[in-house]
Design brief:
Distance between the termini: 36 Å
Number of helices: 4
Largest sheet: none
Bound molecules: zinc ion
Length: 132
């Protein structure tokens, strides 16, 4: 990997981490906000389909997504510092520059990512919550 390409990716990852840390913070705040407004802290009975509560579910989903993305970004930065960045964690082949530029925090080459995706799909297959 060329030094300038590596530096650019590192910069991208650091920017991503900054943005995600900020967003996880905001999502946490919003969650408390929605909880307070939806009467989470009151003793009043509430309807199951309370739109504010659906908002809460949405917020939890967003912050979970961002936390897992943040973890991936952080391990990618660690790999950059250890010099193992750009190497597939599964098959140890080099991850293509195009893929790294598109998904700088990826730990897998495209072939392994597709394989993993197929396995997740298989695991979830039959689960009515997931329709692909
Ligand atoms: Zn691989």
């Amino acid at each position: 990997m060329k030094t300038n390409e590596r530096d650019l990716l590192e910069l991208q990852l650091i920017e991503m981490r900054k943005r995600l840390l900020h967003e996880v913070d905001l999502a946490d705040e919003a969650r408390w906000d929605v909880m307070a407004k939806s009467g989470e802290f009151s003793t009043l009975p509430r309807h199951a389909a309370d739109p504010d509560l659906e908002g809460l579910d949405g917020q939890v989903a967003i912050s979970l997504n961002e936390q897992s993305l943040l973890e991936q970004v952080e391990t990618a930065i660690e790999r950059l510092q250890m010099g193992t960045y750009g190497v597939c964690q599964e098959c140890e082949c080099k991850i293509g520059m195009e893929r790294l530029q598109a998904v700088p925090y990826t730990a897998l080459c495209i072939a392994c990512a597709l394989k993993e995706h197929a396995q997740i799909k298989k695991r979830l297959f039959g689960d009515p919550r997931y329709r692909w």
